[in-house]
Write a structure and sequence with these properties.
Helix content is 16%, strand content 28%. It has six helices and 13 strands. It has helices at 13-17, 35-42, 96-103, 153-160, 168-180, 184-187, and strands spanning 45-53, 58-63, 68-73, 80-86, 89-93, 112-114, 122-129, 142-145, 195-203, 210-213, 222-227, 231-237, 257-264. A hairpin with a 7-residue loop joins strand 6 and strand 7. The relative contact order is 0.27. The mean pLDDT is 96.
Amino acid sequence: MKYSPQNQTPADADVRRAIKPVIVYPVDTLPLPNANIYDEARANLEQIDEVIVAPRDAECFHVPAGHFFRIVSIEGPQVGDLNLWNVGDVNERFFSGKTRALHGTHVSVGDRLWSNLPYMRPMATLTYDTLDWYGWDDDGGGVHDVIGTRCDPYTNVMLGGDEYHYCCHSNLIRAFAKSQSISYDAAEPFVHDVLNVFMCTGFTKDTHQYFMKASPVRPGDYLEVFAEIDLLGGLSTCPGGDCSSGHSSDDAACYPLKVEIYKATKGLPADWHPAERSGYSRHHGAKE
């Protein structure tokens, strides 16, 4: 335990603890992606662009709606921190918390990356994952988490007392500021909690603390994503490298990552259209 209880255990403690859990968001009515559309489209892909993200840095990239992008390991085991924005309105961004609530702590093929309120729609769908074999290890670890927020210089100063300027938070600020031609101060509020691509994480069994361990990713592995709307992506190569030891320093071996962007050469079904934002009225109980 992380703390010592201040209160005596009540007589009915076991009864209270034995109550069965209830899933917070039952997904029986969650709109499911049409896997056939993705499968048919990805069978005929043409690469139209690529971006190399240098170690301990970040880059932004554009993915039109109906296109695919892949985050690819190219030189060595490396974790990436992914942000997503709506190209036409960067106030709409990836909502890792709601994605976690709907799909779980780690995501893979068939899961969707949802946007923040009031937009609340799937920004992207995961369509292929060369690490889908990993599953859950004996420590409870899995790959591609939506738990961690991103390494940042503020927490680093608080815990270690030193300034480090190449945390994923700062990397993403630099990349987003460049893409929007704005200052770092103006860019910072748009950098948000991430999808930790290739990162192997979980919670310890005793104290339930967030842990990381060496990523199983190897050169040639990739995570493939379908853009449900016009996307601006931001990818940081984490200074922790494969995150087997630490982060927020220059100690770990780090490698570049590649982003490949593809279009479906045979197109998409005529009735496919970009995801629509939430249909909620935004009445919020206002009196007439």
